[in-house]
Amino acid sequence: MSGAGFLLAVNFLIAQCFCMFFLAVSARSRNRVAARWFAATYAVASLATVFEFLVAYVGPAKPWAILAFAAMLGGMLMLRVGLGQLYGLKTNRAWLVAIFSAFVALDYFIYDLPRGTLAHALPYQTPFAVALGMSAFAVWRARPPSFVDRALIVLLALTSVHFLAKAFAAVLAGSGNTAQDYLGSQFALVSQSMGAVLIVTVGLMLLCVLVLEIVADEKVNAEVDPLSSLLNRRGFDNRIEALLAGTGPHGLILCDIDHFKKVNDTYGHQGGDVAIRAFGEALSIAAPPGALVARIGGEEFALFLPNTGKEATLLFAHTLRATRAVAPISGLPPGVRITASFGVAEMTRGEPLRLAMRRADDALYAAKNAGRDRVHEAEPPTVVVEVFKRAN
Hints:
5 strands, 2 domains, 392 residues, 12 helices, Rhopdopsin 7-helix transmembrane proteins, Alpha-Beta Plaits
């Protein structure tokens, strides 16, 4: 086996590895369809190496050579479909099929042209450059690019240019007088070496995009309460810091579903889950833009209203209380109403979050001790600050 033939075998194995990698990633990625298209890209394009061997060792050569061209081009156009899925682009697949058919027909007609000439090499390599250029353009126009997106654009563009450069290299270095001579040429050795590098770099960059999105999704999932679909305590604490940088004052509300244990005892844990979901949904719908809404534990919820004063925060809490007291809950008996108690604190600029949370929590318990289904305002921080300092 020649050196180029050995590299063909290596490229085939590399492509199969990437195919398996993308299939494995698809099991965890929200872009599983895109990952499967990338797996198909490598699986189909790798068939070109098989057909190249058949060109060299099994006659007649022309059908195998055209199939090798079609497999490589088909894989590259599948890459464009996968990128469309990944970046949310509309892809006209009928148009891609038409491009594929036209370029395969072109390859059929130029097959018998003299090799080692631009008349043959340029029409042969241009379809690959066009297919990869389409992919680079798709990523470029999809969304404000991240660093990884920019790197992918550059790689795809370089790979596209690489195929155009191969047309001139084939003329200068010589790719053999016939298709069967290709594997024995010096040009084939260089071409397959560059192909291996590009297969790995583009594949790794695509995997990087998918893996980074999986990591981002896992981070979001770690900050979201699965029952209410609101932020959990971690998510609330992580996101509130950026909002505290505002001019203020800010509104902080802690609320607690009244007699939640009785709901669980009467209607079971499923009924309790229904109540939590309904209450969380009501808070989320009522919250103004920019507010944080979280389930911070059990039946307790928190709302942070940035740049909102005491009067507006109290009015909002009273509206929530009155609305929940009369709203029916789908999934519980028609006559069942769920009330809640609210503790409201106004955060002044520079006040520690834990102090404001403690004040709001004290107000919440005062509301519950006063009979529930009511709103209590927290003591101002100037009254509580000394107690807070002594406690810490």
